[in-house]
Design a protein that fits this description.
The complex is a heterodimer of chains A (108) and B (423). In chain A, 41% of the residues lie in helices and 4% in strands. Chain A is mainly α and 108 residues long. Chain B has eleven helices and 24 strands. Chain B is globular and about 65 Å long. The chains are: A mainly alpha (108), B alpha/beta (423).
């Protein structure tokens, strides 16, 4: 499966995971409180509720999918410069914390 | 993490002992801890919102802001360029008051009794605090440009605070005579919004290209170079060929004076006659920072891990007024710093977990329709300074689809950050 992602890059990793509902048996384990704190950096651009133009919705995203996308930005397989910079300093624990927190939010 | 928390615990302990209170946990006190925030912009509104929202009522939060409606400085250039209605950059404080229980006080802050921990208001009232957050933005140093003054701002608006000054500038540019000249005197470093003057030039060029295509724009800059210079120069050449002339300090030799009556700007090189003009003088921290005694020179030195002022551990300073080292004076920076300060203050007052500071910034600029560029970075708190971890900037020669996407991203960001400040 190929998805044209934010930043114009083409990502062919296992993003089929994104199609799963957030509540599916997700393997990601993270500290949700830490994730909520870290999300303060995300919400400057990604609204928690509702859509906005030009910036993808991440609330309610499947946790494994979010880890895959952040990893792809970190390795620069995905192309948005802002997201590459944000992802560059996220370690595995932080990515998992964010993913678990966002998966816990309702998607709209 | 452990050292960080211990340091805070010690600082808190020392603070309470010094003021003669018993060193019992804050949470056990009869009254709720009080935080007073001054300034309802990107730093102050965000700090008030996060303190109230995350403490879930455990902290009494008051926001002191003279205006009932706040017009963002960011995106005011898009209003100038005709891409935004004025109303669309205005925001009220109902969300903070009704949604999060923030006490709104629409009044000017006049001074601070740091020993008694009280903020004095212009109407004579005072507000007691356990922690004070100052996010006053900038004041204009009128006398940094010879001939300029507070009175002169009606003739040559600086328009470097959002609101009526920006509306005035737009009217003056749109009413320029055919083939007239708009002159901008750009500010010296450091100043609010590093790419802002050059985005403003782009937006004014965009208006003139439609309404007054033989008009000219001259930028007299006290600097030798500026933010995103290559990107702006390329964009001006592409979209507004022959219209914009930028003269750095090495070319004009120094800005000697401005005369708002004759609309002349004198430099070593020449005297420039303007039909409309902007003078953006040097800047300094908003006056309450000076009244609080936390400034050093024109700005407020801060502790990078907390955003507390170096001079007073109970006074936190956010945004443009602070010396944030590698971080530019931007709304995005202030919003980012506010969340770090709110996390620390909440930890100090309610014993909630304090996480390590992390900061980010992105500054988008619009050059022409669907031609957006950006510069940004992530930052960590060093011992002495806030330090950049990773930086990026748009490239010259990018394809149109990417530039359009960057512009759309900026629109999305505006919607999100204002939600993060006011909802």
């Amino acid at each position: 499966m190929k998805i044209r992602a934010f930043g114009g890059g083409v990502l062919s990793v296992g993003l089929a995971l994104l199609a799963l509902p957030a509540a599916a048996e997700d393997e990601v384990k993270g500290d949700i409180e830490y994730g909520e704190y870290l999300s303060a950096e995300c919400v400057a651009c990604h609204q928690t509720q509702g859509h906005n133009q030009g910036i993808p919705q991440i609330a309610g995203m499947n946790a494994s999918g979010m880890v895959a996308i952040l990893t792809a930005y970190k390795s620069k397989e995905l192309n948005n410069a802002t997201m590459q910079t944000i992802a560059a300093r996220l370690d595995d624990e932080q990515m998992a914390a964010l993913a678990v927190y966002y998966a816990s939010l309702p998607a709209e | 993490m452990t050292n960080f928390n211990r340091r805070h615990f010690n600082a808190l302990f020392a603070g309470t002992a010094a003021t003669g209170m018993l060193a019992m946990p804050n949470i056990a006190r009869a009254a709720k801890p009080k935080v007073v925030v001054v300034g309802g912009g990107a730093g102050g509104a965000t700090a008030a919102r996060y303190l109230a929202k995350d403490s879930k009522g455990a902290i009494d939060v008051t926001l002191v802001e003279a205006s009932k409606r706040y017009y963002t400085c960011f995106f005011s250039n898009l209003y100038l360029g005709g891409y935004r209605d004025y109303d669309s950059i205005g925001h009220g404080y109902e969300g903070l008051a009704n949604g999060h229980g923030v006490n709104m006080v629409h009044e000017w802050a006049s001074s601070v009794d740091t020993a008694g921990k009280k903020l004095m208001l212009a109407n004579g009232a005072s507000l007691s605090y356990d922690r004070l957050v100052l996010s006053p933005g900038i004041d204009i140093k009128y006398d940094s440009v010879d001939g300029y003054s507070a009175e002169a701002q009606s003739k040559m608006p600086h328009a470097w605070k959002s609101g009526t000054q920006v509306q005035l500038l737009k009217a003056q540019v749109e009413n320029m005579k055919e083939g007239g000249t708009y002159v901008m005197v750009a500010p010296p470093n450091p100043y609010r919004c590093p790419p802002g003057p050059y985005e403003r030039v782009s937006m004014i060029a965009h208006i003139l290209k439609q309404k007054n295509p033989t008009a000219k724009i001259i930028v007299l800059d006290p600097k030798e170079k500026f933010s995103k210079q290559g990107l702006f120069m390329e964009g001006w050449q592409k979209h507004y060929p022959g219209m914009v002339e930028w003269l750095g300090a090495g070319v004009h030799g120094g800005i000697k004076s401005v005369n708002p009556e004759t609309m002349e700007i004198e430099t070593d090189l020449d005297t420039f006659k303007a039909d409309a003009a902007t003078v953006i003088p040097a800047q300094k921290a908003g006056s309450i920072a000076f009244a609080a005694g936390v400034t050093d020179g024109d700005w407020v030195p801060i502790v990078p891990a907390t955003m507390a002022s170096r001079a007073d551990e109970n006074i936190f300073v956010l945004g443009d007024a602070s010396v944030a080292s590698a971080m530019p004076k931007s709304g995005f920076s202030a919003n980012s710093q506010a969340k770090v300060a709110a996390n620390v203050i909440r930890g100090q007052l309610t014993d909630s977990k304090i996480f390590p500071a992390r900061f980010a910034n992105t500054c988008w600029s619009l050059i022409s329709t669907d031609d957006g560029v950006k510069v940004g970075a992530s930052y960590n708190a060093g011992e002495e300074k806030i330090e950049a971890v990773d930086t990026f900037v748009s490239q010259t020669d990018e394809d149109a689809a990417l530039r359009k996407q960057t512009y759309e991203e900026s629109e999305g960001w505006y919607s999100s950050i204002t939600t993060d400040m006011f909802s």
